[in-house]
Amino acid sequence: MRQGHEIAFNTLYRMLEALDTSQLRLPETDLNPLGPSRTAIATSLMRALHSRHDPAPLLDDDWGDRLVPDAVRAAVCQRVLDSMPPAARIKVAELTPAAILGLGLRANPAYADVITRSRYAEDALKTAVERGVTQYVIIGAGLDSFAYRRPGWAEQLAVFEIDHPATQAMKRQRLAECGVDVSTSVEFVATDLSAEALGAALARSSFQPARSTFFSWLGVTMYLTREANLSALSAIASCAPAGSELVFNYVDQRVFEPDASVDESFRKLTANVAAAGEAFLSGFDPAVLGEQLQAAGLLLLEDLNGDQALARYDASGSNGLRSASAAHIAHARVLAPSPIRSGR
Per residue in 147-159, pLDDT tens? Predict the structure, then answer.
């Protein structure tokens, strides 16, 4: 089965290189206004596509597309097709809807970042669990599927998904439709973090603030202001004891400067998300990220840009991933409170 998939998608890769992919866009948020955002839907579909069809998958996510309702998936496919120039539409006319959807997803400049950041986070989580971490908090969980495909090393891990009530309602409905009993696999914490502090939201759950915890915060920071991001980092650091860890991704702040030299893939990415009503608002400066994290109560352990992440996870180019160097993934550890930060 894998060999057949490789042949089919190698054909798609060749077609993709021949097309002007700047015209390929995923649907606007109005496809599902009471559920996950456009980007949450897209990233979930990307993880499933990569897991099932890329030659050397970095993830094993067979839930990514199952969590997206059939009607939404069909709408995504139609939007991809409609956005193609006429010549491209002729080229893909004989492809199945799933193949057309795959073509559009792979054309998205965020594809490589979605895959590598997901793998990086799960690698860091596994190492943290081996160190004794027992809680996993997914901030802005969207359609994340870790709790429903957890590997053996995570069987005893308490998983908390934090997201907007409307997003979680749609996700829980979809899980029920798939016959999944989530009562023992995950605890949903519904909240609007723009109106409620992270600690307050977690206090309404069975979360234990004295226990070592791993936090993931993926695909969020670029949609927040600088002030909101710094506040969120401080909130995360204050929710768990020293030694707890965080993985988050961000974009290099330099791309927001008027005279910045930005690679073409990233330019397309920012244009796409802006067109979908989810524009990038801010980033971090890698040169001072360590200082900013320390001020928030966190120690920077590692910071990889898109090229470095790809060198780690797809150095041979087997999956044909194309990085955006401005995309970063960072790993940090919660520090013991200092007198200055604690106000003593």
Answer: 999 999 999 999 9
